[in-house]
Specification:
The protein has about 500 residues and is α+β, with helices and mostly antiparallel strands. Among the domains are: about 10-105 and about 145-175, no CATH class; about 335-495, Histidine kinase-like ATPase, C-terminal domain (Heat Shock Protein 90, 2-Layer Sandwich). Helices cover about 55% and strands about 15% of the residues. The chain is built from 11 helices and 12 strands. The strands form 3 sheets. It has a 5-stranded antiparallel sheet with strand order 2-1-5-4-3, with helices on both faces. α1 (about 10-60) packs antiparallel against α2, α6 packs antiparallel against α7 (about 300-330) and α9 (about 380-395) packs antiparallel against α11 (about 455-465). The longest helix is centred in the middle third of the chain and has 68 residues, at about 225-295. It is rod-shaped, with a radius of gyration of 60 Å.
Length: about 500
């Protein structure tokens, strides 16, 4: 069984409102109709009472009633009371004067209502037929009044003619006005409820679309009133909620992706570490096994094998130290102490120490750093970073010279360039130079003793100290690492 379509909010407002207004209008119309009808009837009664009262007053003042009766006949000749009948009887029931056809006298046994009221109250009126047994006779308005001494009574009657009926009936224009008023009120009620129902209809449509389609376009076409303001506030809260949900979902996706990438990187790192450790450990084991299996080996060969094992052991120790350093930078970067570092002095000390170190390929190091170049950093980390850059250039650049210089500065940072005059790197390798254990020439890298962690340590050092680092090929040839370090200012609270 199909459900009936519910009545809209507008019609649920309109129907009872119009019903109530029509009820009020009809009640007022009926009240006005009865009031108007009573007023017109009372006006005829007042005319009859006025005639009776004046006749009685003339009688009390001993004025001749004959002229007054003639005046009444002429006065009402062309009015709605044309045809009025007036009869004056004495206490014995004899007719004294009359206007029009005399009204029959009645005995005490069959007094009509108006005479009965006149006898008891002094005056009375009634609306009845002249003869209740004769249905063809018209209705009459009757009036009666007795004198103060009770010697005469005046009996008046007015035939219920068409002109009298029209004068006593309520004007039909009243009903036209009532109907027009009801129609106008209905139209006003329709547009008022339509205006009020528009907000509810829009909210209802919004709720349905929000429940069924989250990507719908929200139409903010609400009227500019209190209900419209409430509706717009609801829409605003919904938008904020949807935006918050989208942000939450986006952050959730980013967090999931970051977790997956972290797991992937960790897995890859574990595999790389496992692979990198196996090589020196395997070589060391091979040399030691050879020495153990050949006790008759000559001293020169034994010494050479032990030296080779020591070289690979040194490489293994360097790799473990680098792993410890990069792990400390990544996991405890916020705990690294930041201090004022004289970068010119640091570079000068590195250059002086290199004179006492026999680099593999004997690359020369130069620098162009001004005096009083103070940066926010950590002396040991920056020292190790610069050593790693120099060794990387010595091991892999195939160049003869490398150096560092300032390329630009502003109010908050220095930008440095470390460069060499080697062969450079193919563009496809540049994005991966800071990856752990990434080697362009894997065989040669191991042969020269690199751990594959020098450049990742460089990048993490710069990041921990709040700077950035980029790598690009250096013109005309070679490789350039461009990195930034924050200036040391007089207010240490500003250093971040």
């Amino acid at each position: 069984m199909a459900l009936r379509k519910p009545i809209s909010y507008q019609w649920r407002l309109f129907i009872p409102l119009v019903a109530m207004l029509w009820f009020i209008i009809i009640a007022l119309a009926l009240f006005q109709y009865e009031r108007e009808k009573t007023y017109r009837t009372q006006r005829v009664n007042d005319e009859l009472r006025l005639i009776n009262s004046r006749i009685i007053a003339s009688y009390d003042q001993d004025i001749d009633l004959a002229p007054f009766m003639n005046f009444i006949a002429k006065y009402y000749e062309n009015s709605v009371l044309n045809g009025i009948r007036v009869s004056i009887y004495d206490e014995r029931g004899e007719l004294l004067y009359c206007v029009g056809t005399p009204i029959p006298r009645y005995t005490s046994e069959n007094l009509p209502p108006e005479l009965a009221d006149a006898t008891q109250k002094g005056a009375g009126t009634a609306f009845r037929r002249s003869d209740e047994n004769d249905k063809d006779n018209p209705y009459y308005y009757f009036g009666a009044r007795t004198s103060s001494d009770g010697k005469i009574y005046v009996h008046t009657a007015m035939p219920y003619t068409l002109s009298l009926a029209q004068s006593m009936s309520v004007d039909e224009s009243l009903w036209i006005i009532i109907i027009a008023l009801a129609a106008i009120v209905s139209v006003i009620a329709y547009f008022t409820t339509r205006y009020l129902g528009k907000n509810v209809s829009l909210l209802h449509d919004f709720a349905n679309r929000a429940a069924n389609d989250k990507d719908f376009n929200i139409d903010d076409d609400f009227p500019h009133d209190e209900l419209g303001d409430i509706s717009r506030q609801i829409i605003s809260l919904y938008r904020e909620k949807m935006e918050a949900n989208e942000r939450s979902e986006r952050e959730h996706r980013i967090a999931i992706k970051a977790t997956e990438e972290k797991i992937s990187v960790t897995k890859q790192l574990t595999n790389n570490i496992n692979h990198e450790l196996k090589t020196p450990v395997g070589v060391i084991k091979g040399y030691l096994d050879t020495i153990a299996d050949h006790p008759e080996m000559d001293e020169a060969s034994r010494t050479r094998f032990i030296g080779k094992a020591q070289e690979h052991m040194e490489r293994l120790c360097n790799m473990l130290n680098d792993l410890s350093t990069i792990t400390r930078l990544e996991e405890g970067g916020s705990g690294v102490m930041r201090e004022r570092v004289d970068f010119h002095e640091l570079v000068f000390n590195v250059a002086a120490e290199l004179k006492n170190i026999n680099l593999t390929n004997g690359i020369k190091f130069t620098f162009d750093i001004p005096l009083d170049c103070y940066v926010v950093g950590n002396y040991n980390l920056l020292y190790g970073m610069l050593i790693n850059l120099i060794r990387n250039a010595d091991f892999h650049s195939h160049g003869t010279d490398c150096g560092i210089k300032i390329v630009k500065q502003n109010s908050r940072e220095y930008v440095f360039s470390f460069y060499d005059n080697g062969n450079g790197v193919e563009e496809e390798h540049l994005p991966h130079l800071f990856d752990r254990f990434y080697r362009i020439d894997k065989g040669r890298s191991r042969k020269v003793g690199g751990t594959g962690l020098g450049l990742p340590i460089v990048k993490n050092t710069i990041n921990v100290l709040g700077g950035y680092i980029r790598v690009q090929n250096y013109k005309p040839h070679g490789l350039e690492f461009r990195f930034s370090l924050m200036k040391w200012t007089a207010n240490p609270n500003k250093q971040k």
